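2024-03-11 09:14:02 DEBUG pipeline.ingest accepted 1 chain
2024-03-11 09:14:02 DEBUG pipeline.ingest length=510
2024-03-11 09:14:03 DEBUG pipeline.predict start
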Amino acid sequence: MSIRGKVLSSSLWLVTETGATMLSSFIVFALMTRLLQPIDFGLVAFAALFIDFARGLMSDSIPGALVQRRTWDEDAASTAFWMHIGSALLFVAAVAALAVPLANTYGSARLAAVFLALSASIVVDAMRGLHEAKLRREFGYKQLAIRTVIASLVSGIAGVAMAFAGFGVWALVANRLMSSALQTIIVVVAVRWRPKLLFSKTECAALFRFGRDMVGAVLFAQLNGRIAELAIGFVLGPVDLAFFRVGSRAIGFLMQVGINPIQYTALSAFSRLGNAPSIASAYLRMTRSTALLSFPLFLGAAAVAPDFVVVCFGRQWEPSGAIMMALGFGAAPATLLYFVQPALTALGRTRLILNFSFVTLVLNAIAALATVKLGVVAVTAGQTARAYITVPFALNILQKVIGLPMVQTVRSIAEPGIAASVMAAVVFVARLYALDSLSPLVRLLLCVALGAVVYAGLLLIVGRRHLSEVMRELIPHLPAGARAAAEWVVQRIQTRTPAASPFADIAGKY
C-alpha cells in the first residue's frame, strides 16, 4: 500500500478508535462533574499539570527519534527503551521532591498524596513508549482499536463507581491510573516486541544528538500547553482551574476526534517521503482534509458553548461555557499549525522547531501574565489571540524549508473557513434571539441541526472543488459499500474540473 493509503487507512481507524474512546471518556467525565465538586477537579488538574508535562516530554522525544528513522534497529530500540525507563524514574523522583512544597504553597494537604499517586503513571506510560513508536512506524492501528475502547470503558466505569461510592478526588486518580495501566498492557501485548538487555553507548549518543534540540522543543511545547493553567492555578486557585479544565475538555474532545488521528500518523508518513517537495504536498493535503472538520467543529462549538456546558455538565459549571467559546475561536491556528512540527521533524530540522517553540512560549507567558488578573476567561482569550499571532511565523518557516507558499497554505483552508464562520454567526444569532425561550437541551439540539444544514449548504456553494478533491482522495480507501455512495456524492457536487494544484507534479510521489 502507498504511503498515502497507509496514512488514510490508519487515520480512519484512529478516527474510529479515538471517537469511541473519547465519547466514552467524555460521558464518564460528564457523569463525574455531576458527582464531584469543582475543588476535586481542581486538585487533580493542578497535579496533572506536572504529571502530563513529564509524560508529554518523554513521549515526544526518545520514541520520536525512532519513528523518524527510516529503518527499525533492534539495538537502537532496546537502548532507547532503557533510556526511556531511566528518564521516567528521574521524573518520578522530581515529582516526589516537589509534592510537599507545592502542596504547602497551594494550601491543600491532599495535593501531595494526589501528586505521588499520579506519578506512578509516568513509569507505566514509559513502559509502552517504544512499543507505540514501533506501532506508529508500521501504521498498525487497526488491531488496537477495539481493545483501546474497552480499556477506556473499563477505567471509566471504575472511576464513576468510585465517585458514586463517595471516594471524591480519588475516583479521578483511580480513573487515570487504571487507564494508563490498561493502555500499557494492550499496546505491549499487541505489538509483541521485547527490548534486549543491552545498552549501546553508540546508539545512546546518536539518539541524544537527534533528541538534543527535540527535547528542548518538546519542553517548550509542553510549557506552552500548560502555562495558562499554571497561571490560573497559582493566581486564581483550584476552582477557576477546574472551570478552565471543564471548558477545555469539550474542545479537547473535538481535537482528538477531528485532528489528532491525522496528526498522529503525520510524522510516520513525512519520514517515509524524505524530501521537501513531497512533504509540502503531504502537508497541504492533510491540512485541507482536516479543515473540513476542524472549522465547523471548533466554530460550531463556540456558538453553542453555553448550552453545551449546562446540558453536559450541569449548571454549577456554567462559567466554563465562556471558556469553551474562547477556545473554539482558535480553529484556524489549530488547523494550520498541527502539522508543522511533524514536517520539520521528518527533515531533521529540530533546531527550527526549538526556536519556534521558544518564541511561542515567550508570547504565551506574556499573554498569561497580562490577563490572569482579569479572570480565567481573559486568560483563555489571550491564549487564543496568541495562536493567531504565531501562525505567520510558522508558515514563513514552512515556506523557507519545504517551499510551500504562505498564500497557498492559507487558501487551502479558506473555503471551509468561510463556510464555518458564516454558519457559526447564524447559529449564534438564532440561539440568542429566535430560540432564547427554549430549554438548553432543546436549544442545543436545534442549533446543532441548524449548523449542520447551514455549513453543508454553504460548503456546496463556496467549497465544491475543495470538498470533491478531498473526497476523491478518500474514496479508494473506503469500504466497498461506502465507496459507491461517496462516488455518487462526488458526481453530484462536482460542477467543473478542479484547477491544477501547484504541487500536482509531485503529488504522485505522495
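2024-03-11 09:14:41 DEBUG pipeline.report Residues 1-193 form one domain.
2024-03-11 09:14:41 DEBUG pipeline.predict end
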